[in-house]
Write a structure and sequence with these properties.
The protein is α/β, with parallel strands linked by helices. It has 2 domains: 160 residues, NAD(P)-binding Rossmann-like Domain (Rossmann fold), CATH 3.40.50; 123 residues, N-(1-d-carboxylethyl)-l-norvaline Dehydrogenase, domain 2. 50% of the residues lie in helices and 13% in strands. Strands 3-2-1-4-5-6 form a 6-stranded parallel beta sheet, with helices on both faces. Strands 7-8-9 form a 3-stranded mixed beta sheet. It is globular, with a radius of gyration of 20 Å. The two termini are 37 Å apart. The model has no long low-confidence stretch (mean pLDDT 96).
Length: 293
């Protein structure tokens, strides 16, 4: 049994924390919206009044947050975890915040506290079932220490030293953002040429983006987009991608286009829906009546 502080109980974090409780670990949890902790408390988690309070007695501190700004507040805010972290504790950030933010946080932590970046690929079903892909940036010794705990949540892959997990996750999410845009544009093109949508979806299910098509086809056909991966978060991730490319002086062209479609979805009020809600926007459907159920 490991004493774990889990901070961030959104769609993904709540399911990941539940997995850890069910595996027998002792959890203290905190979320900006306290009501999110109620169900976990019923399962045996201790509720904390602040991130720092949650982390004070933990062997491992895990954060799963939406944005770099949220991570900054949780770590370095007035009641942040940085004020209580001490040598011997492991700090694992599983958010998607990019390698630059990971570097900024790591450089300001107390001496002797190692930051492990371990962002995940997968959505709510994978989080609930412990099937996440986890990209871990850490030195060898620290990775060996956190690997058993992370294995409860999915399949950890040690991809390099600090910051490497965050870098790999941006590369992965570039593919995801581009693929959903390609799906929308492919449907738009095919329909403009007189092909029925059902036929296009049948064909695209056997194409190079077939896995995504099969995963999101029910959403597109039902016009219902329950948020497994919110469009607003996908747009944020693509902004991190293009920001990182700009700093590296890379001439990426597909990434900004994918970002543009997702940001158009935000502007159209689709941010809280699944990111696949960008598909009807691209094909020109009326997005005012899209559902979440």
């Amino acid at each position: 049994m490991t004493k774990v502080a889990f901070i961030g109980l959104g769609l993904m974090g709540s399911r990941m924390a539940t997995r850890l409780i069910e595996a027998g670990h002792e959890l203290t949890v905190w979320n900006r919206t306290p009501e999110r902790a109620e169900q976990l408390a019923k399962l045996g988690a201790h509720r904390s009044t602040s991130p720092g309070d949650a982390a004070s007695d933990a062997e491992v501190v895990i954060t799963m947050l939406a944005t770099p700004e949220a991570l900054e507040e949780v770590v370095f805010g007035p009641a942040g975890v940085a004020h209580v972290l001490a040598p011997g504790q492991a700090f694992v950030d599983m958010s998607t915040v990019g390698p630059e933010e990971i570097g900024r946080v790591a450089s300001r932590l107390p001496h002797g506290v190692e930051l492990v970046d371990a962002p995940v690929r997968g959505s709510t079903p994978e989080a609930a079932e412990g099937r996440l892909a986890i990209y871990v940036g850490a030195d060898d010794e620290t990775y060996r220490r956190v690997e058993p705990l992370l294995s409860v949540l999915g399949t950890p892959r040690h991809v390099g030293g600090g910051g490497s997990g965050a870098a790999v996750k941006l590369a992965v999410n570039l593919v995801l953002g581009a693929a959903i845009g390609v799906l929308g544009e492919s449907l738009a093109l095919g329909e403009s040429l007189g092909v029925e949508r059902v036929t296009l979806l049948d064909v695209l299910s056997d194409s190079p983006i077939g896995g995504l098509v099969r995963a999101k086809r029910a959403n597109v056909e039902s016009r219902s987009f329950p948020p497994r991966f919110k469009l607003a978060l996908a747009a944020k991730d693509l902004r991190l991608v293009t920001d990182a490319a700009r700093r590296s002086e890379l001439d990426l062209r597909i990434a900004p286009a994918a970002q543009g479609w997702l940001e158009a979805g935000e502007t159209a009020g689709l941010g809280e829906l699944d990111f696949s809600a960008v598909v009807p926007l691209i094909v020109g459907d009326d997005v005012a009546k899209l559902g979440r159920a």
